[in-house]
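Discussion board: Methods & Data

I've been asked by a reviewer to show the raw model output for two of the constructs in my manuscript, not just the figures. I'm not sure how much to include, so I'm pasting the format here to get opinions. Each protein appears as its amino acid sequence followed by a line of discrete structure tokens. Is this the kind of thing reviewers expect to see in a supplement, or should I convert it first? Here is construct A:
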Amino acid sequence: MHEEREVREHRLDSWESFKTKIADIDRETDALKLTRSVSVSEPLYRGQRDASWGLQTTLDRQRPGMTLGKYLTLIERMQPRIERISGRKWPTLSQEISGLRRNGLHTIPWFTAEPANTETIRFFMVYLRQHGFPSPLLDWTSAPYKAAFFAYAGVDEGTERVAIFTFRECTGTARETWGSEPTAKNWGPDIPNTSSRHSKQNAQYTWCLKKPTSGLTLEDYVFADHEQAINLPGFRMEGGVDVSKSRAANVVEKYTIPASERRKVLASLAGENINRCGLGLSRRSVDSLLEDLWNELIIDSAV
């Protein structure tokens, strides 16, 4: 029986309190690196403009439980049109997808490394995510104040609190092996041939797949809810002190801040050129095309 997973939530009373927490997280990272003999991941951050929202991908919201095989079929169908409108090329995409279909995902170290025989698939998926196509990728940033902008920009009237999540894939204990439970894995930051937003936002991405209990085709692997894959057993740090062995990997913490701090926060961030223009958020034709293509593909394939 698996232990219950939950995000540890910190309720902060002000923007200044969050800035203090960022300093604490930096100290924790330094402490982990000093005391652990293997890799320690730098923390990633994700801002959400309503603290009641979970860690859902855009694909989770539209088609929960989609298989890896179905998703790869969709993106392969749209590749020629994306290349025409964007002027970019992903020439080995079909070759890589065919290789996965032929050999099976289990033959490739997809989750523990970034192998060359799947890199075009990953790069193309990131490009689609950056332009709004429903995706199994959850976007993060290595820059906490850029995450704060995404939390506060466009907050709906009546929202009480925003949230900023932190994610650390590896805490310095042995890296989690991919067992029967879903596991979130990080992609980035070096992803070429994508939108300029990627670098402007210091973007990185996670995705979560559930390994099948039987069958090893691409249709047997299902995209899973990220919240099934957080705080994996083994290790946790709090305040720079090793206090328990309850989380080993995919460590997620949640910081909520009053939405009423919005004006103060956005003014502070604007002074550092953290705004829509600086983050490359102006709307482009590719975004509209991808939204339309998703709707067309979903209707045609009845997924």
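Construct B, same format:
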Amino acid sequence: MTVRTRLAPSPTGYLHIGNLRTALYNYLLARKFHGQFILRIEDTDQARFVDGAIESLLKTFTTIGLDHDEGPYLEEGNIVQKGDYGPYIQSERLELYRKYADQLVRDGKAYYCFCSKERIEEVRKQQEIAKLQPKYDRHCLTLSTQEVQAKLDGGEPFVIRMKIPEGETVFTDAIRGSISINHAEIDDQVIMKSDGFPTYHLAVVVDDHLMNISHIIRGEEWLSSVPKHILLYNYFGWEIPIFAHLPLILNQDRSKLSKRQGDVAVEDYLAKGYLPEALINFIALLGFNPKGDQEIYPLQELIDSFELSKVNKSGAVFDHQKLDWMNGQYIKQLTNEELVIRCKTFLEKAEMEIDTVLFEKICFVEKDRLTRLDEIVDHCHFYLTPSKYETDLLIWKKADKQDALSQLQQISLFIEELKENIFDSLELIESSIKRYIEERDFQNGNVLWPLRVALSGKSSSPSPFELMWIFGKKHSLDRIQEAIIKLTL
């Protein structure tokens, strides 16, 4: 069997974290079996359509690095569609859906419904009062052929509903095993709306069949819809694909992930400086982990190890601290050149101008301290503007003010004697200062603590060697002199 999977998002604004995981699992399965991963836009709900959402989705896909084999693409700002089964935007396939809806009506598997919204609402109210399951009461199913034709000829608005038979649907979910749903729980679903657009249920079945989709991997919220879809497959005499319904992604309090408790859009995480490769790794492990003792997975390893049977049934908690840690690990893996290129974007957003050589040094030193790339902006402020600090911060533990002053005065004289080329090398600076301490039999803390605070103005910062390498000889001496003045006041 050729594995063909798909992501079919609605263009409603942004790519949700949950949709990214759905896309990723579809992608991993397709790539593992050398199949195809298809992108299809489900825009039949025109009331929720957001202008520019398709373009935004395609840009995010490109940034994340999930390449699809068929569907819409962005080329020079324009949407183009590639593949033999398109168009891949549902609003461009309306005649196709209408053909299949009409076939169901002819076969007695669906029927016209002329009920007004007001009547539907009144029926639902009465059902609620009687504590009955809210469902369509099949009023229009009792209409004669002549009555139906008269209403059609009179131009009355209508929808088309599928006719749900008695019985139950039993199916196997690749993640959850055998599932049985009684048809008594299922409404006669609208499959064609009065505006000529199909509902999700008809369109998704028609598209998945015609596009030869072998595996339908989607969120668990669609689990209750499977019987409707299987009935449609059976009505048309089509082969039923493999279903797999993913568990929810949860907040820390185990509520459903929502914007009320933090970001849920992939674009928001990218804008904050989370690396695409880190997001992919983190999202992949929300419900799936090939090995219990491993956290960092290259994409190819995720592909090779992916199995639907290994996906958990229970919801996965979105742990922001773990994401920060993982993103930091991926930042550490970047070359210095890659880090500078990626960080420049955030510098430009902040409209901050920094000398190129200085910025490259800052990125090198701060690399292991970053959890997100956008943090580089605040880190740069620290190097450009001296921090205000209390004099007592310069004093090392059991030492006193006089010792701190003496240490800074002496090392200032030593630094003045160092050759300029020493400051071109972090290693030479460190070896020179350490040799200075050893030759004078000083304690490291008594020398390095006041020196680092004088350079940084902070209790926690990069080492004095790194700071001197970034600042250079003159700027380092200026900051040390400012500290000396503080201690003499």
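Answer (T.O., handling editor elsewhere):
This is acceptable in a supplement if you add a one-line summary per construct. For B, something like: The domain at 391-488 is CATH 1.10.10.350 (Arc Repressor Mutant, subunit A).
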